[in-house]
Amino acid sequence: MRFIRPEVKEAIWRCREAVTGVFVSILGMYWAIGATGLLQMVGTSLAVAGALLFFAGIQRARFRTGNGGAGVVHVMEGQVAYYGPYDGGAMSVADLTKVELDPTAKPSSQWVLHDPHSPPLRIPTDAEGAESLFDVFASLDGIQTERMLSELTGQPDRQVVIWQARVPALH
Question: Is the pLDDT of residue 54 over 60?
Fold first, then answer.
């Protein structure tokens, strides 16, 4: 017997970190307000941790554009691999020089990853496991996460550079 409609269940799953953050914050506030001593300090810490988890979860939820797209993304030990029905490849995160978002790609938007050693790696934003790219992108030096999320949800009409490696200045 199903008590939750599939679309509601999907929305909750998409926002799972944010929902967890809300529950952790509520528990922390309950302890911080209703307890004394060590439990009150633990409650305050939980409330703060829950709030941080909530805000991080909101960002992750905005990054998840869906699933069911072509191919599978796998991130492991500093490598991004994409296994698609027609193409694919792997790339070292340390070698990334540019990340672009191509909303004009069909049938769905694509992340375009560049490194100097191989052709661009194109990954559909709705590929299975594409949400793992959030952590990869967040680790890039100088990336503007909010700008990336705005471009992703705003659906620009052209390919957009999300991040580019800084070129060391010549002296």
Answer: yes
| 107 confidence band (pLDDT: 50, 70, 90) | confident
Q: pTM of the full predicted structure?
A: 0.70
Q: What is the DSSP string of the chain?
A: ---S-HHHHHHHHHTHHHHHHHHHHHHHHHHHHH--THHHHHHHHHHHHHHHHHHHHHHHHHH---S--SSEEEEETTEEEEE-SS-EEEEEGGG--EEEEETTSSSS-EEEEEETTEEEEEEETTSBTGGGHHHHHHTSTT--HHHHHHHHHH--SS-EEEEEPPPPPP-
Percent above pLDDT 90 for the chain: 37
